[in-house]
What does this fold into?
Amino acid sequence: MQSSGHRFRDVDHHPLLSSEDDFECSSGNVEAVDRIWFIRDGCGMVCAVITWLLVLYADFVVTFVMLLPSKDYWYSLINGIVFNSLAVLALSSHLRTMLTDPGSVPKGNATKEYMESLQLKPGEVIYKCPKCCSIKPERAHHCSICKRCIRKMDHHCPWVNNCVGENNQKFFVLFTMYIALISVHALILCGFQFFFCIREQWSECSGFSPPVTVILIIFLCLEGLLFLTFTSVMFGTQLHSICNDETEIERLKNEKPTWERKLRWEGMKTVFGGQPSFLWINPFSGIRIRRLIPRTLKGGAEFAV
It folds into this structure.
């Protein structure tokens, strides 16, 4: 790993190691690789549960308050299929973002044995993160919540209870996109529902009482507007970062790139995987069930996510 101007600016924050330095990490402290990734953060888990509850609430109002009582069969069927499909894609993208390793650097790999395996040139220096005792690659940043160094860390998002990094940025972009789409769809359906209820009698346009119907729809409108604003901004920000090959942390710190920036199209293909195809918008791509043998360490089936 070659030194660079960016690395030297971090000298005050991250110690440098050379082949003659002492090592505080022993080989016995190197973290074992676990295929299941989940951050045990109380705030993040609460935010993730709230996200799911809000999406399920929107699905309940759209399905049982607006569509099922409608007299137009095809209107209910088409909108029900579209809305529920988008909701499934949004929640699946959320799960993939939350349960995918964002690009963590193994803890405790700053050992003498690992340093020797790097075959460093004389005088060459690399970084050791003092918090997780790991060799810190270029463009990696330490997350105090995940307690790990994350490659190409963009930010830590409590709503997905995970960092957005090198390996799960695609799923986070899909999550924001699908949430924005179902928010738009819900707002349009709310507009039609108010129009139908005003034109007809309120007691006939819903299976619920008029006051309850109005409260449910108004709350859904507020939720849709809030989610649409938030996810649209995040979606645009993420696409801007991908096209410029610059993470949000690097932009906020105004770090000058010491790496060769990728072209916009190359950055998109790197994040979403290969040439444009249906897989770009598919949150289920890349799922492989490797084993169904219970793990003795933490229990449960082992999945590659």
In short: The helical segments are 5-9, 42-67, 73-99, 112-117, 169-199, 210-244, 248-252, 264-272.
